[in-house]
Description:
- It is built from five helices and three strands; from the N terminus they run E-E-H-H-H-H-E-H.
- By secondary structure, the chain is an alpha+beta fold.
- Strands 2-1-3 form a three-stranded antiparallel β-sheet, sandwiched between helices.
Amino acid sequence: xxxxxxxxxxxxxxxxxxxxxxxxxxxxxxxxxxxxxxxxxxxxxxxxxxxxxxxxxxxxxxxxxxxxxxxxxxxxxxxxxxxxxxxxxxxxxxxxxxxxxxxxxxxxxxxxxxxxxx
Length: 118
């Protein structure tokens, strides 16, 4: 079972964000954040990568590994933060096998969402 958080905003489709480590965020970093529309977090992550690249040579590897780990661990939290900045509120925590199952549980808990965007 996986855990998801459901973020709702008036007149918008619900957004489900999975809990846990994100391999995509770890490997793609700023690109992943920017494709998720987490603009501020994506730009800050890009700036962090610029700083890591400018570090003297022996520390680059350690800095890059730390940044990859931090992006993987906190990537989804940055996405939630970005959703909150856009006016979404976290309404439900759902446990399901996959995202479709989580959406089904959300619609069972909130039938008013099934009729269309809030």
